[in-house]
Amino acid sequence: MNDDLPQPEPDALAHSQQLQQVIAEQMAVSGGSISFAEFMQMALYAPGLGYYSAALQKFGSGGDFTTAPEISTLFSRCVASQCEEVIAELESADVLEVGAGSGAMAAEILAALQRNESLPNHYYILELSGSLRARQRETIEARVPDLVERVQWIDALPESGFSGVIVSNELLDAMPVDIFYIHDGEIFTRTVAIEEGKFIWQQKPADDDVVEVVRKLEQQLGEPFAEGYCSEINFAARGWVTSMAECLEQGLILQVDYGYPQHEYYHPQRNMGTLMCHYQHRAHADPLLWVGLQDITAHVDFTAVAEAAHAVGLVVEGFTTQAHFLLSLGIEQNLASVEDAGEHMQLAQQLKQLMLPSEMGELFKVIALTKNMDIDLQGFSLQDQRSRL
Prior knowledge:
By secondary structure, the chain is α/β, with parallel strands linked by helices.
């Protein structure tokens, strides 16, 4: 137990125990344990009970973490500028945001595109959580009430023929991961079981898919993983890239998230992986605690994203840090244009959070994938780090 974490309220604890029972029933059906990826999927997305599916406060100061769109409108204005550049190149364009959180980014992108007379035909939001949909609608109605009718919520990616920009912020890090570790030169995967009312770790020999990926990683990195090395593989992110490529006819897929190129992700010194949990603005490393009440994440292997994109015919058009992306798109000019002294001071502090290496500037990366487009994207004009992939 993490003694330094605040204890859940009784109602929240009852909610967690209800989800724990659902997961325990699935474990019983599966012979007593499930893979960590299955556990993470249920902990985050079980209908009505998972962290992202239940009506719990997640984003902002009253939640468990704060994302860039909640930190500052400056972030979303820059994303809007990148969208605008692509929209201008297409005969007909829509924007699709996947996992729109509180709706803050959608509202500001719409406002910025309206100011520049560059609105898309539609602004689609792919969001499965009913409670988040409701919050997103409230945010958009409050900030850009005249544009609510342009927004459509959808349950799945368009099957094909989408033209425009698909954008996401902190999406891939919340996809379920498999955990592997090395023992006596063999590859094992972590599983989760329940004992005396508490979730516990177990392990089993890795299946063929995990073994294939780990051995390929060892070849690419030039050495075998050391005894006890533990890390993650995100098969879901690879599948997601394939799904986006299938629905995109022409345009840009823009993804912002925290992570590393492969050689940094699986560095010998990062031998305990990147799995992290967030609960009431506190970070810790126990994903088996209080299911349904805390976020569970793993950093993104951007090399794997790029490889998956290449395999399905997408072009990796750019890769850089969040700081360089925002600088390329004029975040400093946006700040300089604010005349009110109080607002300017507030935005300047927000800019530091977005840009400083010690904050979000270096850890967060932006990757751009295109299809049927020949375009030099402004967001990667100052520094394009594709060579690091």
